[in-house]
């Protein structure tokens, strides 16, 4: 099956009260782990690449691997640019086979964000590609995206209709209390999503797909594995899964997953290499890493996003 855009999958997700998982990929084992879980559960999926992933693995390798996964599984799979920093990066991805791009102008003044986003939308739509924009800024670190907590800001519902109308974006990432990275909150601070903002956005944009970034809900057992086998990771507090499920039942049609996969992969690698110090065949230690990624993704699809059997 060829790669698809997110238009049809978001329409079905909005009407069905579930979300599509958008999983960041960096190499073959991550692509395989994600898509094997999606195939097993018959779920649509978005594979997304950051600018950092394109530097690491190269654009052509990533596109080829994702296309191979779509052909092998027969699933509806979209290839998405995560946090496109500028028009040139988005254009390169559109020209190079991506079916969806995000232009992140959230740190710019409002009017500049609109101008940049519209420029990307105009080019993308001419080439059959869809665009995700962003209003509001999330704290945390993800590749080259770094925002101090003091600089983070919630999305202003009164701006969303104007932004979507003037830019023509196909989906909108909003800030309602999530944060990039695994470590999201200060000691004693409890995560809380601003469902009042999400509801207000939903009322301003009925039927329009909303996106959540920074929505890690890290498995504490994976943190314990890393610490047991030579790591020094503090406890990671993620967004409670029940909050993400509630968001998915509302207007949120796409939920991003990255830190969960990185931590799971690292936990499996450390465990295997500590228990098998003489192993030097990458297939020996990457297989359990791929298997744990598959397990994590399957849990997200079935329990958190509700997208099982929605392909």
Summarize this entry quickly.
With 311 residues, the chain is of the alpha/beta class. It has 12 helices and 10 strands.
Characterization of the model:
- With 311 residues, the chain is of the alpha/beta class.
- It is built from twelve helices and ten strands.
- The strands form two sheets. The protein has an eight-stranded parallel barrel with strand order 1-2-3-4-5-8-9-10, surrounded by ten helices.
- Strand 3 (77-84), helix 5 (87-95) and strand 4 form a beta-alpha-beta unit.
- The protein is globular, with a radius of gyration of 19 Å.
What proportion of the residues is helical, as a percent range? 40-55%
Strand elements, count: 10
> Taking strands numbered 1, 2, ... along the chain, how are they ordered across the largest sheet?
1-2-3-4-5-8-9-10
* Computed Rg: 19 Å
Instruction: List SSEs in N-to-C order.
Output: HEHEHHEHEHEEEHEHEHHEHH
Q: Structural class, judged by helices and strands?
A: alpha/beta
Q: Major sheet: size, sense and barrel closure?
A: 8 strands, parallel, barrel
Percentage of residues in strands: 15-25%
Q: Which terms summarize this structure?
A:
two-stranded antiparallel ribbon; 311 residues; alpha/beta; eight-stranded parallel β-barrel; globular; 12 helices; 15% strand
Topology:
Layout: H1 7-16, E1 20-24, H2 28-41, E2 45-50, H3 51-57, H4 59-73, E3 77-84, H5 87-95, E4 100-103, H6 110-126, E5 130-135, E6 140-142, E7 145-147, H7 157-167, E8 171-174, H8 195-204, E9 210-212, H9 220-228, H10 241-249, E10 252-257, H11 259-275, H12 282-305
Parallel strand pairs: 1-2, 1-10, 2-3, 3-4, 4-5, 5-8, 8-9, 9-10
Antiparallel strand pairs: 6-7
Helix pairs in contact: 2-4, 2-12, 3-4, 5-6, 7-8, 9-11, 11-12
